[in-house]
Amino acid sequence: MLQVNVTRKADEAEGICSFELCAADGSALPAFEAGAHIDIHIAEGLTRQYSLCNDPKERHRYLISVLKDPSSRGGSKAMHEQVRSGQTLTISTPRNLFPLDRSANRHLLFGGGIGITPMLAMAYELSHQGADFELHYCFRSSERAAFVAMLAHTPFAGRIKFHDDSGAQRQKLDASALLATPEAGTHLYVCGPAGFMNYILDSAQSAGWSQNQVHKEFFAADPIDQSANAPFEVELASTGQVFQIPAERTVFEVLDEAGIAIESSCEQGVCGTCVTRVLKGIPEHRDQFLTLAEHAANDRFTPCCSRAKSSRLVLDL
User: Fold this and answer.
1) Which of 83, 252, 307, 316 lies at a 20 to 30 A Cα distance from 272?
2) What element of type H or E holds 179?
């Protein structure tokens, strides 16, 4: 864990604050790659993940941006209302679950709303590499668009296309047209709210882009109807221990309470941190991280949210 000081807090757009974080002891921060995020321990029992959006070459600071979400479980509200400049926070070292694909010869970046944050770091990194890329930044209105003035002064300003939902029709994003012809060697990266994500991903799928070419990061899971949840069992292959999973609890919660360590982060099925091998049984997949092919294979699942179709799952734990 790292101790950092909030050296700057700024309003970037309507409902969006940025936070500049520097090491409390003045040392260089651990290096990170574009697409990486950090865990921020905001208060006791309140930890949230935020994408790093500054230039990965920078070692003196991390920059994050936070949207104050009306449906927040407490994290964004606390960041906006409680965290102040000069405050010391505890954070994790950066982790990257949304990396650039080094084999690609062209990159199309799609950031919707606050989903622009990982795309900024990607654009910096690709610019340094002299790579071929486009950044498409989509937002509801100019009042809700963060970093627009800053982006005009970046070395990749000429590669950015802005799409304002409230603006003229000609500048709105037409994903179906843009992605109409899959291009070998071109990879797509998508981050933003669920509706935006589905629009881009559905357009890519309809046009025939392969799953290997499409990279995505969800900020939050879609609501799931829990009313039909049924209890089931999980067995740990290493010990033979069997745990009962009641309808109102997750596998992760039950195993964590029993002292069985499973690394986790989002606890919503969007980050992939907790993915666990399934040796026997059929999972009921509820995550937004694994691909359709991985769901069909039924040999991995996310214990933070997914359940079981069979009466028991045997896990590689």
Assistant:
1) 83
2) none
Average pLDDT of the residues in 108-137: 97
Predicted TM-score (pTM) of the model is: 0.82
Amino acid letter for position 185? G
Report d(CA 89, CA 306) in Å as an integer: 32
Q: Are residues 84 and 152 in the same domain?
A: no
Task: Enumerate the β-bridge partners of residue 112.
Answer: 138
CB atoms within 10 A of CB 110: 29
Structure tokens at 252: 């992760």
State phi, psi for 234 to the nearest 5 degrees. Answer: -125, 140
- The type of residue at 118 is P
Predicted local distance difference test score (pLDDT) of residue 271: 81
Amino acid at position 166, single letter:
S
Band of the pLDDT at 158, cuts 50, 70, 90?
Answer: very high
> In CATH, what number is assigned to the domain containing residue 148?
3.40.50.80
